[in-house]
Amino acid sequence: MPDLQILTPDGNSRIVPLDTERLTIGRSSASDLSFPEDNGLSRQHLSIERTGEGWALSDLASKNGTILNGNRVSAKTPLKAGDRIMAGHLILVYDGNTIRQTKPVVIFDPNQDNEGEEQTSSSTVITNLEGAIRTDRGDAAGVAAAQISALVRAGNELSGHRPLPELFRFILDLAIGAVKADRGVLLTIEDSDLVVRANKGEGFRISSTVRDRVLTSGASVLVRDTSIDDAFRERRSIVEQNIRTLMAVPLQTRDQIIGIIYVDSPSLLREFTRDDLNLLTVMANVAAIRIEQSRFAEMEQARKLLARDLEQAAEIQRQFLPGTAPPVAGLDLAGHNAPCRTVGGDYYDFFPYENGRVAMVLGDVSGKGMPASLLMMGLQARVEVLAEEPRDLAQVMTKLNRITAANCPSNRFITLFFCILDGETGELTYCNAGHNPPVIVRADGSAELLPGGGPVIGIIGSIEYTALKAHLNSGDTLVIYSDGVTEATSPQDEEFETDRLGAAVASVREQSAEKILAEINRAVAEFTVGAPPSDDITVIVAKRL
Question: Using CA atoms, how far apart are residues 50 and 186, in angstroms rounded to an integer?
Answer without folding.
Answer: 57
